[in-house]
Amino acid sequence: MNAPAYNFAYLDEQTKRMIRRAILKAIAIPGYQVPFASREMPMPYGWGTGGVQVTAAILGPQDVLKVIDQGSDDTTNAISIRKFFGKTAGVATTTSTADATVIQTRHRIPEAPLHAGQVLVYQVPIPEPLRFLEPRETETRRMHALGEYGLMHVKLYEDIARFGHIATSYAYPVKVNARYVMDPSPTPKFDNPKMDKCPALQLFGAGREKRIYAIPPHTHVVSLDFEDHPFTRYRFDAPCALCGAGNSYLDEIVTDDKGGRMFVCSDTDYCEARQMAGHRGSESAAPHEESAHG
Amino acid sequence: MAEPQNPPQDDQPLLVAEHLGKNYGRLIACRDVSFALYSGEVLAVVGESGSGKSTLLQLLSAQLAPSAGRVSYRMRDGVLRDLASLGEAERRFLFRTDWGYVHQDSAQGLRMAVSAGANVGERLMAVGWNHYGRIRDSASSWLERVEIDTARIDDAPRTYSGGMRQRLQIARNLVTEPRLVFMDEPTGGLDVSVQARLLDLMRNLVSELGLAAIVVTHDLAVARLLSHRVMVMKGGRVIETGLTDQVLDDPREPYTQLLVSSILPA
């Protein structure tokens, strides 16, 4: 269970207290980026150092942890973080969204609705939504403080001018609690409406940029848009090839070098649960028939 | 020059500077500058490099805090307020609605990486416009007014020539119909024919819109074409002030005489 060389959940208690203070402040000011003294973690930046620190700070021995990467429980990043906490905290792990109390995620919000008492921890690469338009940190902080968010619409304007519609498809800016504009981390904009009035607590950790922010349960989260170009969700217009779901976010999987492709749920837990319940898609009866495409 | 179509409704000054001074340690950049600017009036500040022109402009536009004296501005509600008493939010709001600032270096005044339309529309979006079609219509009508081909509305300003960039800066500033525009060497670095076209455009816009403007320039020809009044600065002090033709044709101070006589004959 708990390897003797480690404190519970890897981080020392002082560090956890520091991170918890940042988290409490972040919850008190929804959408506001709270600076914190991010630590070196035994993984490279970009692999979820921020998310791991937040998870380590909130994890208790009774918690059940789920880790997803692009919706999937079985990618390298998800497996290694799950094993990391299995080893350093000895907590139970699961792949089931409903059973988990803490879900660390990279780039997705699970399809199954979250319930009260759950915590969703996002790994965030760049927490500042204004960054690519205004490179100065001193200036972006001032803009947040004064609520000057015209620049965010400049970005959306550029999209429409170039592509005819708002082409931003991930990291789509939202306004939290009618005050702070926030980057929801690179989740697809399909997931944006799930953040609104979500009964679970949502925490965002950016390790390299040393920022934590939060959306408390049942908080208003609105995606920015124009009156004549309203926010729309986007998903591939196809059912999942494995479970037949018509409302889940899909990954496009290239199956050969002749243009063959299939669309499957990006949320593996959701897809498997549906298949267990007897739902079938076009490819699920014979999943190894790739040669048939040739 | 055409009479302004919107003559000032009253005789209250728009901007008042009182005994304005700025020093950096023992270096005095600007001292004891006092004047009043009325709406619809164009004031040129001339002088050689290092005479305190740019410092004065920054003091007047509240980008620098003065070491002495104060600047007051008559807000849209008609109340004259000390700029130092405004909160930062109010000051920044003023800066992007009621004021314009045309930089000598267009890269400072424009967002070079976003399209011309977004550059013009930014101020509108900042004051809460939320309708793409209307923002775009407004942007394209302003591009027309500053004589930029509307077919180039989606091009980034870095693909524009120097003269076009300055005209775009002007459009970007005027879109919220400011009452006062600060210009820092607006024609600097442009060739003579482009300068002439820009000056002509600015003169028309200023008179059409009844704008007040403070133009900092070392080019007396710009002062002569654009301004009603001239202030001559030397060593941080205003040494001579008066109507443009009076100062330039009949200079009183030896330094002004030198400035005027040092223009190369055409």
TrEMBL record, chain A:
Its EC number is 4.7.1.1. It comes from the Bacteria. GO terms for biological process: organic phosphonate catabolic process. The keyword S-adenosyl-L-methionine applies. Pfam families: PhnJ. InterPro entries: PhnJ (IPR010306). Keywords: 4Fe-4S, Iron, Iron-sulfur, Lyase, Metal-binding, S-adenosyl-L-methionine. It catalyses: alpha-D-ribose 1-methylphosphonate 5-phosphate + AH2 + S-adenosyl-L-methionine = alpha-D-ribose 1,2-cyclic phosphate 5-phosphate + methane + 5'-deoxyadenosine + L-methionine + A + H(+). The keyword DNA-binding does not apply. One of its GO terms (molecular function) is metal ion binding. Catalyzes the breakage of the C-P bond in alpha-D-ribose 1-methylphosphonate 5-phosphate (PRPn) forming alpha-D-ribose. Belongs to the PhnJ family. This is Alpha-D-ribose 1-methylphosphonate 5-phosphate C-P lyase. It comes from Bradyrhizobium australiense.
TrEMBL record, chain B:
GO terms for molecular function: ATP binding; ATP hydrolysis activity; lyase activity. It comes from the Bacteria. Keywords: ATP-binding, Lyase, Nucleotide-binding. Residues 15-260 form the ABC transporter domain. Transmembrane segments: none annotated. GO terms for biological process: organic phosphonate catabolic process. Pfam families: ABC_tran. InterPro entries: AAA+_ATPase, ABC_transporter-like_ATP-bd, ABC_transporter-like_CS, P-loop_NTPase, PhnK. PANTHER family: PHOSPHONATES UTILIZATION ATP-BINDING PROTEIN PHNK-RELATED (PTHR42764:SF1). Belongs to the ABC transporter superfamily. Involved in beta-(1-->2)glucan export. Transmembrane domains (TMD) form a pore in the inner membrane and the ATP-binding domain (NBD) is responsible for energy generation. This is Phosphonate C-P lyase system protein PhnK. It comes from Bradyrhizobium australiense.
